[in-house]
Design brief:
The protein contains six helices and no strands. The protein is an all-alpha fold. The chain is globular, with a radius of gyration of 17 Å.
Length: about 140
């Protein structure tokens, strides 16, 4: 049992683990919000899936930038050039949007699965890609 606590202590002192944990909390909230907005729009309205993905993206990108820059990656990297950091964040956000739009198109139109199925890769695949890009490129 003592060995387990020592390992947990080691993880807690690792800055990447702290960032990953904070990113999971913040990103989980933003991702769940986006997935919830998408799911509500396609369940309650006749709006096209791609419009629902885009609407959810617009809401979440603004919330995500503030939360990730102030909480997830606090103390990581330099914040000397806010314009460059913001620009890189927008590029990563566009990549995540493209991934989510692709998942939506492939699952709903390509495989003719129910309109809610893109929520699964939106929740579990896109966040891993965006954490890596944010850590290594945006908030470097």
């Amino acid at each position: 049992m003592t060995t387990i606590f020592h390992k947990i202590d080691g993880w807690r002192s690792n800055p990447v683990f702290g960032q990953l944990l904070r990113f999971a909390i913040t990103g989980g909230f933003v991702t769940a919000l986006g997935a919830g907005l998408y799911a509500a729009m396609v369940a309650l309205t006749p709006v096209h899936e791609q419009i629902a993905v885009f609407a959810a993206y617009v809401v979440c990108v603004a919330i995500g930038y503030v939360m990730h820059s102030r909480f997830s990656f606090r103390g990581h990297g330099s914040r000397d050039n806010v314009a460059a950091t913001t620009g890189r964040f927008v590029v990563v956000s566009l990549i995540s949007y493209a991934m989510n739009a692709f998942f939506t198109w492939a699952l709903v139109r390509g495989f003719e699965l129910p309109r809610w199925t893109p929520v699964l890769p939106i929740l579990f695949v896109t966040p891993l890609a965006t954490f890596t890009l944010n850590r290594l490129w945006v908030f470097k």
